[in-house]
Every structure is written in structure tokens, then in C-alpha cells.
């Protein structure tokens, strides 16, 4: 049974992250998609899987083996700060009446 409550993640679509666990440990890539309901994210170039694709002439899809990214648990990725270029934890602060994410190492704002 799936939990229908809205969960929040420490990463957002477009964030640059580093994978901290698993077979792709150390890989850096951008978050293509965040899936808050499952606490997972899809990272470019990480957790590549091979899927057998059936051909579909109506949609113009060729059959064969297709490589694509599988979801990674969000606890296994860390945000890379754009200012200090280091993997960092984030903290939340209220600036100008808005809740923003801030780098714990250098204090730089992550949400622009």
C-alpha cells in the first residue's frame, strides 16, 4: 500500500548531486526527476539498467535493448554546492519571507 502523504526531499529536479552509496558511488550528475512519494530521484548517468524494449511501429519505437537510468534512493545522494563545489548537507533558512535551502559549508543559497 502506497503512502499518499506528501513527502519532501532535500534535492530538487535540476540539482547537481553526487551518489554516496551503491555501485555508482562517487558519480556526479544532475537530478532528472524527483519522486517524493517513493523518496527516490533519477540521476543522469547513474544506476544505468538495460531494458528490453518491444517494437511499436505506431509510435515509431524500434525494438531492442535500451539503457536508461533507474531511480536511486534520495538518502544515497548529496547536493554539490555550486559555490564551493563540495558535497554538502543543506539547511533551511527563511530569507525575505521565503524558505530557502542553504549550503552548510559555505552558507551560499542553493535556491535562486
How would you sum up this structure, described in words?
With 112 residues, this protein is an all-beta fold. It has two domains: 1-80, Roll (SH3 type barrels), CATH 2.30.30; 83-112, no CATH class. It is 0% helix and 43% strand. The chain has no helices and ten strands. The protein has strands at 16-19, 28-35, 40-43, 48-53, 64-69, 72-73, 77-80, 87-88, 90-95, 98-103. The strands form three sheets. It has a six-stranded antiparallel β-sheet with strand order 6-3-2-1-7-8, with no helix packed on it. A two-stranded antiparallel ribbon has the order 4-5. It has a two-stranded antiparallel ribbon with strand order 9-10. A hairpin with an 8-residue loop joins strand 1 and strand 2 (28-35). It is elongated. The chain starts with 15 loop residues before the first strand and ends in a 9-residue tail after the last strand. The model has no long low-confidence stretch (mean pLDDT 91).
Amino acid at each position: 500500500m502506497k503512502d499518499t502523504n506528501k513527502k519532501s526531499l532535500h534535492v530538487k529536479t535540476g540539482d547537481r548531486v553526487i551518489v554516496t552509496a551503491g555501485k555508482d558511488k562517487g558519480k556526479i550528475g544532475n537530478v532528472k526527476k524527483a519522486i517524493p512519494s517513493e523518496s527516490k530521484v533519477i540521476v543522469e548517468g547513474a544506476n544505468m539498467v538495460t531494458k528490453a524494449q518491444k517494437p511499436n511501429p505506431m509510435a515509431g519505437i524500434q525494438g531492442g535493448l535500451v539503457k536508461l537510468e533507474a531511480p536511486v534512493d534520495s538518502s544515497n545522494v548529496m547536493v554539490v554546492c555550486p559555490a564551493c563545489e563540495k558535497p554538502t548537507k543543506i539547511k533551511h533558512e527563511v530569507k525575505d519571507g521565503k524558505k530557502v535551502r542553504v549550503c552548510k559549508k559555505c552558507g551560499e543559497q542553493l535556491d535562486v
